[in-house]
Write a structure and sequence with these properties.
The structure holds 2 protein chains of 2 kinds. By secondary structure, chain A is an alpha/beta fold. Chain A has 2 domains: about 170 residues, Nitrogenase molybdenum iron protein domain (Rossmann fold, 3-Layer(aba) Sandwich); about 120 residues, Nitrogenase molybdenum iron protein domain (Rossmann fold), CATH 3.40.50.1980. In chain A, about 35% of the residues lie in helices and about 15% in strands. Chain A has 14 helices and 12 strands. In chain A, the strands form 3 sheets. In chain A, strands 7, 8, 9, 10, 11 and 12 form a 6-stranded mixed β-sheet that branches. In chain A, helix 1 links the parallel strand 3 and strand 4. In chain A, helix 5 packs antiparallel against helix 6 and helix 6 runs parallel beside helix 14. The longest helix of chain A has 20 residues. Chain B is mostly helical. Chain B has a single domain, classed as ABC transporter involved in vitamin B12 uptake, BtuC, CATH 1.10.3470.10. Chain B is about 80% helix and about 0% strand. Chain B contains 13 helices and no strands. In chain B, helix 1 packs parallel to helix 12, helix 3 crosses helix 11 and helix 4 packs antiparallel against helix 5. The longest helix of chain B has about 40 residues. Chain B is globular and about 65 Å long. The chains are: A alpha/beta, B mainly alpha. The interface between A and B is medium-sized, with 23 and 23 residues.
Chain lengths: ~325, ~325
């Protein structure tokens, strides 16, 4: 019965999971090998690395020699760069960067998916960090033609992908040691959170609905980062479970068919819509188990959706909140 | 005419000198000198920004505007209708439909070639439409074109939402028009098609002059009206199709270009066609400067700017006709 909208204040997680990291050794970090093959002389945090060559997800090999002015084109990449201690070298961000707070004061280059090359070049970057969602490809090519190294990092959609991504960014920035340390910590947090996860026979159905005002309501499913979070918590992704691929416009019938026990929403979008009551009044919502029992969870968008340094904390909080709402009704 | 050339070059110079990256006049001069082989030296970022980003965009803007200006002038003559505009009569949306399908199948190259074919086919449809709706009431051609455009644009939407987003540009690119996709590859291909068809139309100035007198009059003066009209519509469709395949449906340049210059050039096509092309080109190049810089670093579609500036021209034309009629 209880209506619980959890405020996920950035950084201050009530979870009791952060100590697990120290007991994990580097060799057992997830099932993923972290790339620590960079040359020894690049292990310092000097502004200029010694020329790391990185083959991006687009198959382009980029040699990075100067990381003193970084433009990050994705919020999760920005978080990782800051967490690796290189925040001072970030010269610009895209609109998806909302954390950490220092980053949000930097120049914004617009939407990474509609990249305007000149806006990036105006910041005189020595390195552009992009992912596979960055585009159009012509704009990336124009940046490269202008002599700016653009590294396209693989877009990760699984929990295992988090440490892969951290390892790759650390390699590109020439800070493999910091990368290993961060990966170990994050993987430890993820493992600890998953230790609390639901058993398969008790798994609730959880749906993520992306809200940005009354005209933008999307049900997330297969292949979205929310699937990794929901399944990581031991729950069933109600969207992916009913055949939703990617993000589809929310229709009452699709939501009822998904039959979520709990609906997760982005906080800011929910506020723009007019709060939980406004959401619950949307046709279809009341006919789901979540709507009938008033089980809604709200999180900061970047905190919940970005697979990055805070994913372990977010997952721990998510698991605890899910247990809470399922028990209280 | 020389004045229009100077205007276009000035607009191009303005467009080349503004943008998010600041390039000093001396830096630009150095880059230009290096490109022309006048001075030697290492190329820097100024070269990449000027010749890799801004110049293809300026040239594409001029080509798109030139194509629409020419097409507008020609359509206004063929239909003897001052309100005819390649986008408003439906040729642009038809080209966009084909170009979007082409993009889904073959990326940027597919978009351009399919756009040309789609433009030509739609031009033939529009020709039949134009003959059926009476010449007596010019606004009816516009209404038919708007209806046709609405249907075709809807199908553009079906293609965009149903295909791979990495291949097909978003819906606002097609409906509003934008020069943000300009690379030398796109610009060169579009330029070849537009220049060839524009020269062909310009060479037909005598026949176009006779066509304006009316179908019967032109026939009496020895013009094979049907053949000429078909050829002119095909050329116009190809030209508009190339422009739309490269930049989406940029609106109103086909109205603004011809109407801006007609008081000076007169109705004769030998002067009207190049003048309308130059005016259309200048209009789109300047509109794109606004599109790039107004909300920097975010770019807005150039078609928003051309519509904001060109829409009132259409209203003025309609109001003027009404005033004359009463």
């Amino acid at each position: 019965m209880a209506l619980l909208v959890v405020s996920a204040a950035c950084g201050e997680s009530g979870a009791t999971t952060t100590t697990a990291a120290t007991t994990t050794t580097p060799a057992t970090v997830g099932s993923t090998t972290i790339a620590t093959t960079a040359a020894p002389e690049t292990t310092t945090t000097a502004a200029t690395g010694a020329g790391v060559t990185f083959v991006g997800a687009d198959g382009v090999a980029t040699t990075v020699t100067d990381t003193s002015r970084i433009v990050s084109l994705s919020g999760d990449l920005t978080e990782i760069v800051f967490e690796l201690g290189r925040g001072a070298d970030v010269a610009g961000i895209d609109v998806t960067t909302t954390y950490p707070e220092q980053a949000t004061k930097l120049p914004v280059i617009g939407f990474a998916q509609q990249l305007a090359p000149e806006a990036v070049l105006a910041l005189a970057p020595t390195l552009v960090l992009a992912d596979q969602l960055t585009g159009p490809p012509e704009a990336i090519q124009q940046l490269r033609d202008a002599g700016v190294p653009v590294v396209v990092v693989q877009t990760q959609t699984t929990l295992d992908g988090v440490v892969t991504k951290i390892g790759q960014i650390a390699e590109i920035l020439g800070v493999p040691d910091a990368g290993t340390a961060l990966a170990v910590r994050v993987q430890g947090e993820i493992d600890a959170a998953q230790a609390q996860a639901f058993a398969p026979d008790a798994a609730p159905r959880v749906g993520f609905v992306y809200v940005r005002g009354p005209q933008t309501l999307l049900l997330f499913g297969q292949g979205m980062t929310t699937q990794a979070m929901i399944e990581g918590a031991g729950a069933v992704d109600a969207g992916a479970g009913t055949g939703v691929g990617g993000a589809v416009p929310l229709t009452p019938e699709a939501l009822v068919a998904a039959a979520p026990d709990v609906i997760v929403l982005p906080e800011a979008g929910l506020a723009a819509l007019g709060g939980v009551d406004a959401f619950a009044a949307i046709p279809g919502v009341a006919d789901t188990p979540a709507g009938q029992a008033n089980r809604f969870l709200g999180y900061d968008e970047a905190y919940f959706l970005n697979l990055g340094p805070r994913t372990g904390q977010a997952l721990a909080q998510f698991v605890a909140d899910l247990i809470d709402v399922m028990q209280s009704s | 005419m020389p004045a229009l050339v100077v205007l276009l070059l000035t607009a191009a110079a303005v467009a080349a000198s503004v943008g998010a990256v600041r390039i000093s006049p001396s830096g630009a001069a150095g880059a230009l000198g290096r490109r022309l082989g006048l001075v030697t030296g290492p190329t820097g970022q100024a070269d990449a920004v000027l010749f890799g980003i801004r110049l293809p965009r300026i040239v594409l803007g001029a080509v798109v505007g030139g194509a629409l200006g020419t097409a507008g002038a020609v359509l206004q003559s063929v239909f003897r209708n001052p309100l005819a505009d390649p986008q408003l009569v439906g040729i642009g949306p038809g080209a966009a439909l084909a170009a979007a399908a082409g993009a889904a199948l073959g990326g940027v190259g597919g978009s351009l070639s399919a756009g040309v074919v789609g433009g030509m086919l739609t031009a033939l449809v529009v020709r039949r439409l134009g003959r059926r709706v009476a010449e007596a009431d010019p606004t009816r051609l516009l209404l038919a074109g708007i209806a046709l455009g609405a249907v075709l644009s809807a199908w553009v939407g079906f293609i965009v939402f149903g295909s791979d987003r990495s291949l097909v540009p978003p819906i606002e690119f097609w409906l509003l028009g934008s020069l943000s996709g300009s690379t030398w590859e796109v610009t060169t291909t579009a330029s070849v098609v537009v220049c060839a068809t524009a020269l062909g139309l310009w060479a037909s100035w005598r026949r176009l002059d006779l066509l304006v007198l009316g179908r019967r009059e032109a026939r009496h003066l020895g013009v094979d009206v049907d053949l000429v009209t078909t050829m002119v519509m095909l050329a116009t469709g190809a030209m508009v199709g190339a422009a739309v395949g490269a930049a989406g449906v940029v609106g109103f340049a086909g109205l603004v270009g011809p109407h801006l210059v007609r008081p000076f050039s007169g109705p004769g096509h030998r002067r009207l066609i190049p003048a309308a092309a130059l005016a259309g080109a200048t209009f789109v190049v300047l509109a794109d400067v606004v599109a790039r810089t107004a909300l920097s670093p975010i770019e807005i579609p150039a078609g928003l700017v051309t519509a904001a500036l060109g829409g009132p021209v259409l209203l003025w034309l309609i109001a003027r006709r009404n005033a004359r009629a009463t």
